[in-house]
Structures are given as C-alpha cells and as structure tokens.
Amino acid sequence: MSKKFLVILVALVLMTTYLVIVGLSRWGDITPPEILITQPFDQVGPSTPLSIRISDPDTGLRHISIRIVHNLKTYVLDKQSFSSHGLLSAEGGTRHDYELTVTPYEDETIPRKPGDAKLVITARDYSWRNLLEGNRHRITQDFTPKFSPPRLELLSPPSSIAQGGSGVVRYRASPDAVTHGVKIQSAFFPGYPMPDDSGMFALIAMPYNAKSNTPIQLTAQDAVGNTAILDVDLRVKKKAWRTRRIGISDSFIEKTVLPIIAQTPELPEQSTNLENFVMVNNQLRQINNQTIRDFSKQSEAAFLWTKAFRQLPGSKVEASFADHRNYVYKNKVVDTQDHLGFDLAVTKHYPVQASNDGVVLFAGYLGIYGNTIIIDHGYGLQSLYAHLSSFSVKTGDAVLIGQIIARSGTTGLAAGDHLHFSLVLHGEQVNPTEWWDANWVQTRIRDKLSLEAPPEIILEPEQPEPSNALGPRPGLNPPPATP
User: Which among 145, 164, 183 is the end of a domain?
Assistant: First the structure.
C-alpha cells in the first residue's frame, strides 16, 4: 500500500468520522425550540406588554417569527434569521437564546379595535431534520383586545375648595376599573367604596400653591391600561398666605443645624455654616417631605376617627399654614421655603395630645422635624407632630383624641420649644383649620359621606380648654419657631 493511498484513506476515515459526529449532533437533535410567553397575554389593551423567551440549547436558533393576526390582518412584531457556524459545523447556530419585550398596541400601525385576535409565534432550529429545514415549533394564542376605558359618573363634588383646603368627591366607576380617584397636578387621591355602598368617594386636597384654574380630574384605569378622565368643575377659593422674615445666625446654625447633620449620615457636613444651613433647610427638607408622602401609602382604608380634629389645648399660634419664609443670613436672603403646618406653643415640654383617634405609624427622628410622630386616621389622612422632646407612644399603638403622646421640645430645625403640627392627606399637606372646625367636618366631610354626627364631646376636667384655632393667648412669648 502506497504512502499516498494511506494518507487519502486516513483523510477519508477522519472525514467520515467527523460527518458521523456532525450527523449525530445535527440529525440527532429532535427537540424543537422552546417558546415561552413569560406573562399573561389573554386580555390585551394599549399598555399590555408582551414578553417572550425562545431558546434552543442544542443546535441553536435558525429563524423566529412573532406576529399578531387581528381581524384577519397580520402585523409582524419581529422576524429574524440567525447565522450558523456552517452547514457542516457540529455547533449549528450561533444564537441559542432570544428574548423580546414589547407593547404591541403602542404601535399606531396596529389598529385599536375590538374583534378576533391571536398571537402567532414560530421558531426553527439548525437541526438536519425535515430535509435540513430543522425542528419547528409554533404556538398560537387567542386573546381579547380591550380598548374601551372604564365608565365614570360624577355624583357630587364639593361646591368649592380653598387653596390648601380639603373636600370630598363622590362618583361611580364601572367594575372594570382597578384604580380610580382624583388627580390634581402631580397629586393623586385614590377612591374608596362609600360606607353605604352607594358609589365611590375620594378625599381630596387642593395644593396650597395651585392656581385657581388648575385642572381637577376624576380618573379610572382598567387592568390593561385604558384610562378614563372626567373633569371635576368646582370653584377654587384663593387664599392669601403671609410672608415672614426669619433671621439665621451662626450660633443658631451651630446649635441647631449641625446636630441634624450629625444624625443624618447621608448628608456630609459642608465647609461653611451657610452651606450647612441651606443643605438642611432645602435638600433635607425635600427628603423629609418625601418620607412623609410615602407614609400615606400605609394608611388604613377605614375611618379611624369620628369627631373633629383638635388643636393642641391652650396653645398659642406662632406660625401658620403656608407662611412664606425668607431666611436672612448677614442681611441677605439665602433661602426661601413655605411652612406647611402650624407652630403651636404653650410652655416648655408641654404635653402633646393626639389631635384625633388613630394609629401611630411612625415615632422617631425625621431630619428637620426632629423627634416626630405620625398618626394615621384612615383613608390617607394623617397628622404629624414634630420637634418633640420625648415620646409617650410607639409605632403601632392605637391612640384616642386627647391622649398624651409626647412632650414639646426643640429637636430638629426649631429655634424654641414648640409643637409643629401638620395634617397630611395622601401626601399633600393641608390647612388644619378646616379639620379643627366641627361644623366644617360635619357638613363638608361627614354629611357628604352619609356619616351620622358623633356624640357631643365632653372634655375631661383636667384637660385645658382649647384656644381659638388662630387666636394667640396673652402672656406667652416663646422664641421664634422654625421650620
């Protein structure tokens, strides 16, 4: 046997062996690609996402096609062919996995109409099966297109609402609405079933700085993204807020601001007193107010109170809701902020009472507010008590109106001993004077919701009589209050 013939024979044997290996790999692949729709796609609307994963771990993907057939018309979402390592390669295709996430009906070329619709997904691999066409897998899923929004019916909005004020909007929403409520600027006030099941209601708050022509919209959305919007036509009463000038000194910053920074590790101390003050008064204020807004998501869907809210008995008003403050350092205005609450003062370490029945959501340190208690009163309404020197309750405690929950103090951004009191409705801070008024609470909230009037309030003898909500008491002159 010649050497040349031997070389040819060895080459043929090697080639045959390789072809056998390739054949076993490519011909032996009898498993078609796997197609998986990774989230439900049965009822489909304008914002319903389609998530697909296609894989072939053996010989790899050759071709995929994803189509929607809607009212007998075909719309291609994606169609691709993938390369291979070559016809005689044992590895087959270069692509083994494919994923697609798309919102089909965001594409304006697919009509948003009712009718018959189905999703068709096809995939082939690089197997030599089926005359080298590969294994094929096709799935077809029927789905129901839905593009009609929920129905809304406005029953009774408040006749008017003041800037910084509150109110009730009553309405009906069709059963397909999964979220509904009232939208004012960026604030959303979710709706709840009426106590007598006669429809829905939303407690709303007009932002203190909103213009009188700000749109107030009743909205509802179904599970697939269809949205209904209905304008709520009511009169917005303008309010005139005061402007105050607050002097800031280096001694105040060192005494008050630096301790706040020490307890707020996410805020690094700055190089000057002024920079420290502006960082706390501005940046930390925004962070703290967002934390307060976040607590609204934990509110219980129930009325935890029956009586009007109560101002701290015997207290003098040192600062009112929505006072506009110009902060002056060395005869120069260095920052401006709006004071969204009431500063109430009596004497040092005065017993602080719960303004109404509720459950304590938070009792701890909160930046510019210092030691703070937040009480949930249900349906998104919460009260906040700040600058406290000590706590008498803890998170999770149920409290009653008039119950002592803390003592006033100077923690946080406070220049003197006082209580900073705020009312917050679904994250929007509102004017407490309305909620302190028993007649307003009955006629503007409870009557609208067909709630019976509570029994007459009889104060315990040891409790001091509450002052007028805005009337100062003579003989008390605590230091100016901040924030």
Answer: 145
With a CB cutoff of 8 Å and minimum separation 6, the contacts of 418 are 318, 343, 344, 345, 387, 408, 478, 481
Tokens for 29? 């692949």
For the chain, the average pLDDT equals: 89
pLDDT of 465: 39
CA angle 422, 423, 429 (to 5 degrees): 90
SS3 category, 252: helix
pLDDT class for 468, splitting at 50, 70, 90? Answer: very low
The label of the residue with tokens 């044997």 reads: 13
Q: What confidence category does residue 72 fall into, taking pLDDT thresholds of 50, 70 and 90?
A: very high
Q: The CATH number of the domain where 199 resides is what?
A: 2.60.40.10
Q: Is 36 helix (H, G, I), strand (E, B) or coil?
A: strand
Nearest to 56 by CA among 117, 124, 6, 152: 124
Q: Which amino acid is at 116?
A: D
d(CA 31, CA 126): 11
Which structural domain, as residue segments, surrounds residue 414?
A: 243-446
pLDDT in tens, 405-445: 999 999 999 989 999 999 999 999 999 999 999 999 999 99
Q: Phi/psi at 300 (nearest 5 deg)?
A: -80, 145
**Residue 45 belongs to domain with CATH number:** 2.20.130.20
Which domain CATH number covers 435? 2.70.70.10
The residue count for the chain: 483
pTM of the model: 0.81
Q: By C-alpha distance, which of 455, 469, 365, 378 is closest to 421?
A: 469
What sign does the dihedral 167-168-169-174 (CA atoms) show?
positive
End-to-end CA distance of the chain: 104
The stretch 228-240 carries a mean pLDDT of 92
Same domain, 222 and 130: no
Mean pLDDT, residues 334-342: 94
Residue corresponding to tokens 């010989």: 59
Instruction: Name 53's bridge partners.
Output: 36, 99
Q: Give pLDDT tens digits for 163-194.
A: 999 999 999 999 999 999 999 999 999 999 99
Q: Could you please report the per-residue DSSP string of 181-227?
A: EEEETTEEEE-EE-TTSSSEEEEEE--TT--TT--EEEEEEETTS-E
Task: Compute the CA torsion angle 404, 406, 408, 409 (nearest 10 deg).
Answer: 170
Domain count, the chain: 3
162 φ/ψ sector (left φ>0, alpha ψ -120 to 50, else beta): beta
pLDDT on residue 159: 81
**Geometric angle at alpha carbon 227, from 225 and 232, rounded to 5°:** 155
Whether pLDDT at 476 is above 90: no
pLDDT of residue 459: 40
Asked if residue 187 belongs to a domain, the reply is yes
